[in-house]
Structure formats: C-alpha cells, structure tokens
From TrEMBL, chain A:
Signal peptide boundaries: none
Matching PROSITE patterns: ABC_TM1
InterPro entries in the cross-refs: MetI-like, MetI-like_sf
Keyword annotations of the record: Cell membrane, Membrane, Transmembrane, Transmembrane helix, Transport
This protein's name: ABC transporter permease subunit
Cell compartments where the protein resides: Cell membrane
Membrane topology, as annotated: Multi-pass membrane protein
GO biological process, one term: transmembrane transport
GO annotation, cellular component aspect: plasma membrane
Family, as annotated: Belongs to the binding-protein-dependent transport system permease family.
Automatic annotation (TrEMBL), chain B:
Family: Belongs to the NMT1/THI5 family.
Signal sequence region: 1-26
Keywords: Iron, Metal-binding, Pyridoxal phosphate, Signal, Thiamine biosynthesis, Transferase
A Pfam family: NMT1
Catalysed reactions, semicolon-separated: N(6)-(pyridoxal phosphate)-L-lysyl-[4-amino-5-hydroxymethyl-2-methylpyrimidine phosphate synthase] + L-histidyl-[4-amino-5-hydroxymethyl-2-methylpyrimidine phosphate synthase] + 2 Fe(3+) + 4 H2O = L-lysyl-[4-amino-5-hydroxymethyl-2-methylpyrimidine phosphate synthase] + (2S)-2-amino-5-hydroxy-4-oxopentanoyl-[4-amino-5-hydroxymethyl-2-methylpyrimidine phosphate synthase] + 4-amino-2-methyl-5-(phosphooxymethyl)pyrimidine + 3-oxopropanoate + 2 Fe(2+) + 2 H(+)
The organism of origin for this protein: Antribacter soli
Subunit structure: Homodimer.
Protein name, as recorded: Thiamine pyrimidine synthase
Amino acid sequence: MSRPTSRALPRGVPAGLAGVLALAAAWEAYKALLPDDGWVLGDTRILPRTTDVAMPHLWDMVARAAEPLTSAADAEPLWLATLRGAGSTLGVAAVGWLTGVTVGLLVAVLMARFLPARAGLLPWVVLSQTVPLIAIAPLVKRWGSRLEIGALDWQDWMSVAVIASYLAFFPVAVGALRGFTSPDHASTDVHLELFRAYGVGWWATFWRLRVPASVPFLLPALRLAAANAVVGTVVAEVSTGLRGGLGRMIVEFGASASADPAKQWSPIAGAALVGLAATGVVALLGAGLRRYQTGEEAR
Amino acid sequence: MHRKYVLTAVTGAVALALTGCGGASAGTPESDSDLIPVTLQLQWVAQAQFAGYYAAVDQGYYEDEGLDVTIQEAGTDTVPIDVLASGDADYAISWVPKVLGSIEQGTQVTNVAQVFERSGTMQIAFKDSGIVEPADLAGKKVGSWGYGNEWELFAGMQEAGVDTSSDIELVQQAFDMNGFLAGDIDAAQAMTYNEYAQVLETENPETGKLYQPEDLNVIDWNDHGTAMLQDAVWADSARLAEDPAYEETTVAFLKASLKGWVYVRDHPEEAATIVTAAGSTLGASHQLWQANEVNKLIWPSTSGIGLMNADQWEQTVAIAMGTKNETGATVITSEPPESAYTTEYVEQATAELVEAGVDVMGAQYEPLEVKLEAGGS
C-alpha cells in the first residue's frame, strides 16, 4: 500500500542519472551524426546546426567551466561564479515561490468559500497568466522602486521575486481550488454527507475534510509552482537586468556566444540545477504529506 | 526549511543593500554626508560603452561636485527614457532616435549632452560577398536588430536606391554573430565596439586563426551620410523648467561625467579595468577594445565634448522623419519641440572644465591599437 518513504528518493537517483547520461549521449550523438549545417528542407531549417559554435562539445563546456570567468587577475572560476549565481537565483525563486503559494492558497480559499468569488475571480486568475512577462516586468520594477513600507527599502531582487510569484500562484490557486472542492464532486464520497449530518460548520469541514482532501491536487501544483518560480526568476532577471543571478549571466555571456560559445552553457546548466533543487525541496514536502495521499491514490 | 529561505532572502537583501543597488533618489538625505543623491539609468549593463560614468565614480569626480551617483544598469526590457520620465532616475543614457519617438508621444525629456558625436553602427560582410557599398545590399540577406536600431541601415539603403521592401531579404539578427558566421546573414549589423570585435575574436575555421579585419568589408554609416546620434545624456524637461536645484545638479553631473570621459580618453587601459571592476564580465581585450572604440566616437571633438552639433541633430531628425522601416513606419512624423535638446548646461559644464585646465577637445587624440584575443579574453 504505502511504500517506505526512505526508499523513494534513492530509487529515483539512478534513474535521474541515467536520464542525464542519455541526454548527454544524445547531444554528442546528434553532433557526431548530423552534418554541420543541420537539416535544411527547401529554405526551412528543420534541425539545428551542429557546429562547435552552435553546439559546443560537452567536454568543452566542462573545460570552460573550470577556467576563470574573465581574464582579470582575481577572477573566480566559471563554475564557482555559476554556483554563486545559482544560489542567488534559487534564493529569489524561493521567496517568489513562498509568496506565490501563499497568495494562491488564499485565493483558492476565497473561491472555495464564496461561490460568487469563484465566478468573479477564476476568469481573472486565468487571464492573469496571459499577460506577457516582458510587459509586466518593467512595471513591477518601477512600482517596486516607489514603495516604501516602513523601514523596508524595496530592493530590485524583490521585484524579481514578485514576478516569480506571479507565475507561481497560478497553479496553486487552480490546484488548491480543485482540491478543496473535490469532496463536492465525489458522488461516492460520503464524507461531506457525514459532516453535514453532524452539523459541522464550514471552517471545521474545511480544515478536517477539504484541506486533507486537497493534498493530492496540491502537490503537483506546488511542483509546477516551483518550476514556474525558477523560470519566472530567470526571465525577470534577464528582463530587469538584476545582478547576481543566472539570468544576468545568460544575458552577458550571450555577447560572447560566437567567440566563446561554451561559456554561456554554464549558467544554462546552473538553471537546470536550480530547477532540480527546487523540485527536490517540493518532493521532500510531498514525502512529509504522504499519509494524506494514500486514500486518494487509488482514484 | 522556511527559516533557510528567509535567511537566504535576508542575506540577499543585506548584500544588495551593501552594494548600493537602491532605487531612485527621492531626495532622502544621507545620514553621514551632504552629497546630493543622483541616479543615472544606463541603456545596458556595465561595459566600456559607459566607461566615462564609471570612471567619474571611481576617480571621485562626482563626489568633488557634491554628488553621490548611483548607476542603474538596464535589462533587456528596460526603456531608459521611461525610467527617467517616471522619476525613477535623474538622468538617462539613450540613443537620440530612440528618444525622438518618445518625445513625439509626449514624454518630457531633454538631451542635455550629446556625448557620442559619431555613430558606432556599421554593416559588415565577408570579403567574398562583394558587398562594399550600401547599394550592394540589394538582393542580399541583410541582418537587422530592429527595435529602433535599424534606422541608419534603412536610411543608408534608401539613399543608395535600394528598395528596402522588395530588394533585400531582411533577417532578424540576434545579439550574437552566429547568424553572420554561419552564413544566414550576408551583411550583419555590428557596433564597432561590440559585435565587430566579437567576429574578430572568433576563430576562422579556414585558417585556424582569428578572423582579421582584412577578411571583412565594413559599411560605416558615418561615411554615407546616414549616421544618427547615439549615446546622449537625457534629463527631465519639467524639472529643468521649474527646479533650479536640478539645473545646478545637471551642470555638476555633466561636468563630472565629461571629466570621466576625458579620463577614459587619456587612460583607456585603466578605464577598461575600472569597468571590469564595476562588474562587467567582458573579457579584458574586448573591454579595452570597447573603451578604445568608444573613445573614437567622441574624440577628437568638433565643438567640445557633449556639445550638440546642430547639423548632426538636423541630420538625425531628417532621417527620423523621412526614413521608413520594413513596416512602413517612421520614427517621428513632425519636427521635435525646441525642448528636445539644449546646450545650456553642457556649455556651462565644459566652460568650468576648461577653466580648470581640462582639454575638452582632444584635438591631439590618438587611438590605441588594441589586439583582440580569442574569445575576447
């Protein structure tokens, strides 16, 4: 029925490693097997070029990562700068994730509690995600720089976190709403009937029934939110030019994409690491909530 | 776990606060100094293109004028003039044609110093392409960045009788030169101080050595009469009109900034190092190349650094009104207002510099010969 949690993680690790290796092998195989010019059908390129500029060898990327960031005397190695950038991005993404999850849960509770709120809010929640990020990023940065909340001096990284939370709240709001209302839809579910029969109030029903029932819906939403927060952070870093994170590194290294093509793959690999770390944390969270999942897993 | 997040956030906040990435100066007095806080919005991240301002910070020129200057970098979606107009910066650096459109739509900004008097934009092609002049671009795959960076190219082609809607194949160019090197673009847009150098830092697979200037043909818009004015210092017109303190700050800011550019002219190596120390990740030889090329856009100065040459302004405006891009749009439809530029403050600033014995003309200026290394390192 419920497998031991301690084995769940280690079991995933070899599979994950195999996946990474397969990707690496595919990269090099593609590079080795296809012509330099890729595949062109008529005037349209179907498959990308395989030159060392377009697709550097993996070992070149690794070798470049070991070299210093710049030729300045005190420059740190590229991999260290990348890890530092990854740490910064992860920190901002974490703040964005927490904010997004909080807002998403609040919105979901509101929509679950009041039917008019659901009708009124849900379209806006969906609509919010159709606004392009590049349109809101400069606005958020500008509004942020005008904010003065008590002693808090608004920092640029907070604007980036807000943008990340804007992407992160959506799956949580939608997922949590589905979770909270899942007892309503389950025709075979006698729980709600039981609670009603005993005359339990809405909030007590919420905490005892709806919240536990929402866990299976919530966990994938939290994972999606984590991925969104990371993507949102990197994109917002690119968009607003925030220093310290991976997005800024990707922008800056793009300038040497022709002359030093292996360089920009370090922050890209860093972004993958941040994504892994973020989903890893959510997986741990899921492990902690495992006992709420068992009843629902069969469905 | 949550505590760790908060810790990360707090650490980040402290680090940012320490490095002084604060927002705009709303006039909050610094506790331990009576310097006037000033925020300058760049149009891109730190690089030698903005060496003069970084040098002025590093050399204490701003402090000498009683200013505490914060330099704000831009991201890909930052519009410096919008940041200035919304009051989040006191001054902004931007190209003239990019601002003319904003002014026509009602943005109240004034060019207070035209720092670059030459254009750094070129169209480059490989020798064997046979592209030497703008007229040769007909029938070719012509690269363009778009987004307001294309006007000199379009003006140059239209001047040469090339029908820009039917004679060329316009290729959207990325901010690297891979499309050009791979042959997707016959003639690519390139700034003297960036993309041109990127090509020269790349190994030529045929020779095994770096590409050489001899391998390339260059169309320099300065030589074809379609150059437009680029990096200038912009200020808030409304504040200039009603705030004498801001006017005073403007003179002080220009004086220190232009002195910074004089420093870059006289010490290009040190200037490149200053910019790298300010956080640019460009390689050392690329940074020095950029400092040197930017110097060439300023020096020798026709009328003194920062002073607008009326004929160049008129040429820029004429192209902005008369040239259509691929969508048929022009930058502006009517003459910009009088307030679009003024030489009042820069004249005062350079007069003070001359009085202090600073050479604002650079008549004797000789550029360096910079050797680019592979990858710009």
